[in-house]
Amino acid sequence: MNALCDAERKIGTLKENNRVLQAQAVLQDLYVGTVRAELQSQEEKKSKSKSKKLNADSLPKLLDGDEFYQRVVEDSERRKLEEAEKVRKQAAWGAAAELKKKWEEEEEACKLRNNEAMDAWQEAVKLWEIEQDWAKEAHQRPRWKKPKSRAAKA
Fold first, then answer.
1. CA 17 → CA 8, 9, 14, 30, 86, distances in Å?
2. How many whole angstroms separate alpha carbon 90 and alpha carbon 97?
3. Which residues, at least 6 apart from 57, have a Cβ–Cβ distance to it below 8 Å?
4. Which residue range(s) make up the domain with 18?
5. By CB neighbour count within 10 A (0-12 exposed, 13-18 middle, 19+ buried), where does 149 fall?
6. What pLDDT, on a 0 to 100 scale, did the predictor assign at position 14?
7. What is the C-alpha to C-alpha distance for residues 4 and 10, in angstroms, rounded to an integer?
8. CB proximity list for 49: less than 8 A, separation 6 or greater
9. Distance between CA 48 and CA 84 in Å, rounded?
10. Is 72 within the bounds of a domain?
11. pTM of the full predicted structure?
């Protein structure tokens, strides 16, 4: 009876170990898959030469070969796209510069209007203060209220 219990215990332990090993294998497979994908993307990124030369890898080329011809066609298309993008960016920059110049002119005009309004208000306050001083000497009230600035009205 004792031997039977020991055998069942050993079998249970072996089954548990087998489940653990299977789980580890699944997790390792997932990890290796993600690492392999990352490594592949890094290698592809490195393999894309940032050099604009057609023979950037310095290996001998057959100049009339299909692969080299395809690289020449892709390079000419890339250059056309880059030139078009450069023209588009210059046009956008020019439009932005015009808008900024227009905004600066409008801002300057707004500042001038504000300064004129402030000067007018300060002049009106000076006149009111003179009126108030006269009213105090005559023991009367001023005939009009102190002027308020445009900022206080808003």
1. 14, 12, 5, 20, 64
2. 10
3. 49
4. 1-36
5. middle
6. 93
7. 10
8. 56, 57
9. 22
10. no
11. 0.41
Average pLDDT per run of 10 along the chain, which is 154 residues long?
89 94 94 92 75 62 74 89 93 92 96 92 93 89 82 56
pLDDT, residue 65, reads: 75
Is 27 within a domain?
yes
3-state secondary structure the chain: CHHHHHHHHHHHHHHHHHHHHHHHHHHHHHHHHHHHHHHHHHHHHHHCCCCCCCCCCCCCCCCCCHHHHHHHHHHHHHHHHHHHHHHHHHHHHHHHHHHHHHHHHHHHHHHHHHHHHHHHHHHHHHHHHHHHHHHHHCCCCCCCCCCCCHHHHC
Q: Would 134 be classed as within a structural domain?
A: no
The number of angstroms, rounded, from the C-alpha of 110 to the middle of its chain's C-alpha atoms is 32
